[in-house]
Amino acid sequence: VQLQASGGGLVQPGGSLRLSCAASRSLFSINVIGWYRQAPGKQRELVALMTSGGSITYADSAKGRFAVSRDNAKNTVYLQINNLKLEDTAVYYCTARIISASGIENYWGQGTLVTVSS
Fold this sequence. Notes:
It contains no helices and eleven strands.
């Protein structure tokens, strides 16, 4: 599966952004889809994941200001980020996991850069 992330940019603290992740196949065929981020000089960390059934798990750091949603017709998952903080500056990656009889396959998009700065 191919993942195309978009929507990043330069935002002032307190602002909002909506990131998009367009998948090349039906979201119902993807067991888990979601977002990670990697801040400068830091390891990649989980933001939020959504199952094909719609269950969502958020990292503790993402609870309250982040929201994942999806548009099944567009095969697209969104990450809404509100009240952006300086520490939200990172490359945000879309990821997908497909579980089949042959095993587990993980896929990554190219990332979209979010810069929070005044």
